[in-house]
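Researcher: Going back to the complex we discussed earlier. I've cleaned up the inputs and rechecked each line, so this should be the final set. Can you rerun the prediction on the complete assembly and write out the structure?
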Amino acid sequence: MDTVIKVENLTKRFGDFTAVDNISFEVKRGEIFGFLGANGAGKTTAMRMLCGLSIPTEGKGTVAGYDIFRQPELVKKSIGYMSQKFSLYEDLKVWENLELFGGIYGMSDKDIKIKTDELMVRLNFEEERDHLVKSLPLGFKQKLAFSVSIFHHPQVVFLDEPTGGVDPITRRRFWEMIYDATASGITVFVTTHYMDEAEYCDRVSIMVDGRIEALDSPSNLKKTYIAKNMDEVFQQLARKSTRKAD
Amino acid sequence: MIKYLLKKEFKQIIRNQFLPIVIFIFPLLVLLVFPWAASYEIRNLNLSVIDNDHSSYSRRLTQTIISSNYFRLTDQSASYNQALKSIEKNKADIILEIPKNFEKSIINREGTKVMISANAVNGMKGGIGMTYLSSIIGDFNLTIISELYPELAKSNSSVIQIDSQYRFNKHLNYQVFMVPALMVMILTLLCGFLPAVSIVFEKEIGTMEQINVSPVPKITFILAKLIPFWLIGFIAITIGFTVAWLDYGLIPVGHFYIIYTFAAIYIFAISGMGIVISNYAQTLQQAVFIVFFFMMLFIMLSGLYTPVDSMPNWAQWIAAFNPLKHLMIVMRSIYLKGSNFTQLGRELAALLGFAVFFNGLAVLSYRKNN
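Model: Rerun complete. Updated structure for the full complex:
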C-alpha cells in the first residue's frame, strides 16, 4: 500500500500559541484515518494545513504526492474537503451545487450529468434534485455535502466533524457512504467527537494539546490502554490536557 | 471553469429577493427624486422688514422685493433688536432696515441708505440671499432714478455694457448639472458596494472556504465576482440615460460610446476597490463600515456639490486620487459640452490607472490560505 499523506514535524503557531506541535504521521491509500481530540486540541488547524488552507510554520508534509508548502494548489486538485460548518450554496439547487463543484474540479458537462443522475438514484434524492439546498433537512444537507466533496473522485477526502448534530440513523447511513467511498479507492481522513465512530476507523490518532499522543488501530489502542472501548482510551488521554477547551 | 462560477453568480443574483429590485429602483429613485429636492437655488427666504419711514416709497420697495418670489415677508419689526430676535427664533433669514426720511431723501436728491443683514449660519444661503436682495434694490434704484430724473438716467447709463452668455447650460439649470454626476453616484454605489458585500457574505456563511480549498485560481474567482456587476452597472447607467432623457430632456451632446467606454473602465476600477475591501474585512459589518468611510470621503471630495477647483490645495491632491471626481468631470463634459477622448485624455489615463491598481491589489490581497 502506498502513502497518500505523509507529515513530518508539522507545527503551526499563532503568535505565542502553538496550535499544532510537531506532529508526524502517515496515511495509507484506501484507509479510514480517524483524527480525534478534544475541542481546541488542534485537529482543525492540522487538517487545514493538509488542505492548503493554512500555511504551516514548520515541518514537512505531502498530500497525494504534492508538497503542502510549495504546491498547495496541486494538493487542492487531488482532495475533497467537507468543513465543520455546512458550506454548500443554500440558494442553489441540489443539482446546481453538484454542477458547480464538478465544474470547478474540471469535470466535463457529460460526466457531471451522468454522475449526478447516478448519485440522485443512489441517495434516493431524485425528488429533491430541483429543490434549493436551504429547504433540505440537516441530515440531507450533510449527505449532500459529503457527496459534493467526493463528486470529483479525489484521492483523499478530509471530513471535519461531518456528523455533528445529526441523528443516529443518519450517522449510520453517513458511515455507510464513507465505506462506499473507500471501496472506490478514496482515502478518508476524518475528525470526530463520537467514540463509536472512532471504532469504524482503520487507524486512529488522538491529539492532546496540539501533539499526537496515540496512533494505532482501535483494537490495539484498547489493548495498550487496557480499555473496554474507545471512549475509555480517549478519556485517559484527554484528561492529560492542560489547555482550555474553546 | 469560469463558466460554472458565472452561472452560480447570476443565479444567486436573480434568486436574491433584494438585489434585482435595488438594481432597477435605485437609479430611478436617485435620478427622479434627488435633482428636484436637493437644489442650489435659494427660494423662500424669510424676510424681516424694519420700516422706519412708512412712506409710499418704502412700501413700494418692500413690495418689489416680495414680488420677486425669492423672498417672503414673514416678519415686520419695530427695531433692529426685535428683528434679530426673529432671526434667533428662525422666523427670518434676512433683515432689511429702511431708515427714517427714506422717501424725503430720495425726492430731495440727497441719497439714502438701507441696511441689509443676513443670517450667515448657512453661509451660502446668507450670501446668496444678500446678493439677490442687493440686486433687487439696485434695480429698484434704477427704476426710481429713471422715473424721477429721466435726464439723469440717460447721462448716467454705463459706458461699458455687459452682455452675459452662459455656455453649455444656458439657463443655469441645476438639474442639467446634477443628473450626469448622479449617474456616477449610482455606478459607485452599485458596483463598488455590492461585490464587496457579496464576497464578505460568502466568508461569513463559509462557502468561501469551500472555494479556497478547491483549485479555482484567484483571478478566475475574482472575475466571476466582477463580471455580473459590470453588467449591472451597464443596466443601471442605461436606465439613467433613459430617465435623464424622459424626465429632464437631457441627451448627451457627446457620443454614447464614449460614455460607455468610460463607464466600463470606471466600473472595473470601483468594483476592484470593493473586492480589495472585502479581502481585508472579515465580517459584513466591517465591510459596510469601511465602504461607508470611503464613500463619504469620495463623495465629499468629488465635486458633486462643491467644485474641486475651489478646494484648498491639499484637498485637491486628495481629490486627484478619487475615481469619482474623474468620472464626474467626464460625465458632465460629455453630457454638456460633448467632449471627446482627446479632450478627456487625463481622466482616461487616471481611470485606467485606478482600474489597474485596484484590480492588481485585489488579486494580490486575495489569499486562499493564511
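Model: Worth noting: The first strand of chain A starts at residue 3 and ends at 14.
Researcher: Good, that matches what I expected from the previous run.
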